[in-house]
Amino acid sequence: MPRRTALALTLLAASWSLHAAEPVKIGFLVKQAEEPWFQDEWRFAEQAAKDKGFTLVKIGIPNGEKMMAAIDNLAAQKAVGFVICAPDVKLGVAVNRAAKRHNLKVMSVDDQLVDGAGKPVADIPHMGISGYEIGKQVGAGLLAEMKARGWKLDEVGVLRVAFDQLPTAKDRTLGAADALKAAGVPAANIVDAPQAKTDTESAFNAANIAFTKNGKFKRWVAFGLNDEAALGAVRAAEGRGIKADAMLAIGIGGSQTAMNEFTKATPTALFGTVLISPKRHGYETAAAVYDWATTGKAPAPLTLTSGVLMTRQNQVELRRQMGL
Ligand code: GLA
Question: Is 86 helix (H, G, I), strand (E, B) or coil?
Fold first, then answer.
């Protein structure tokens, strides 16, 4: 064999083995990296990475520009796919196009991506919660506790901290409102408090405005799309002297935001939360994208996960059962 050919072959083999040694990379992009729910999802995705032997690339994407840059960045790092909870679900077509351009597998988590007409992007598999059903569980939890306290349904104000531009948020809060109405709460008692973002501060501001406008109610129940929304309402009520004896809120999530409240010595008005599974959402989506990219086996098009009502009383046991 001529020396030059031998050398070329050696170099080729070396580059091959280098390539083989590089671990597979999967991205996990989330809209609100500072929120405990997303921290938990990342933690369980890391677990999947460890179990399956890939590298997880975690990137916070608070807006569309950062999101597009993150996808390009993943491609530059030779990632093979990513899981995404986008800052705006209407970016669905842009996400799909960018993923295809870079030959990356993509799956959404929590917030399902939609196209220009508001329809789910068909070729992006999704895992999220069954929003309306979980909302109904929130409503049922509030009703049970109102009953236990002997509150008259027609005298209670219902604060719906709303973020209706996000379909899952709308589903969750409408599920709760429908459960209350079905039990006899007058529709007129339901007060919408639209929040600008899905964090506690925005919910606090939204709730404050709603309380100011509706001073006639002496007792309140509140809910929103997540624990942060419910907590914002609780904090706003406290600021007006409406404490746990006159206010009840149930969130959705069950991560640290709720746990901080449940472990306070004096119970606050955050009565409960519907515990959902960051473990399933984080672990299963990351693992599914890895399998898809490496074996060609596509994830199920749609997986909806369920929840269970958690309160101060059952939190230790429930979190243990859920492996949290
Ligand atoms: C949305 C919310 C998050 C969390 C997830 C759970 O993304 O913004 O706070 O509730 O859904 O699926």
Answer: coil
Nearest residue CA, atom 10 of ligand 1? Answer: 226
Contact indicator for 105, 80 with CB cutoff of 8 Å: yes
pLDDT in tens, 62-81: 999 999 999 999 999 999 99
Distance from Cα 226 to the centre of ligand 1, integer Å:
6
Tell me which amino acid residue 95 is: V
Ligand 1 binding pocket includes 273 (Cβ within 6 Å): no
Residue 311 Cβ inside 6 Å of ligand 1? The answer reads: no
Which residues are registered as beta bridge partners of 219?
A: 156
Residue carrying structure tokens 């996990």: 28
Helix (H, G, I), strand (E, B) or coil at 199: coil
- Tens digit of pLDDT for each residue in 8-35? 555 555 455 445 568 999 999 999 999 9
> What angle, rounded to 10 degrees, do the helices at 92-101 and 64-76 form?
20
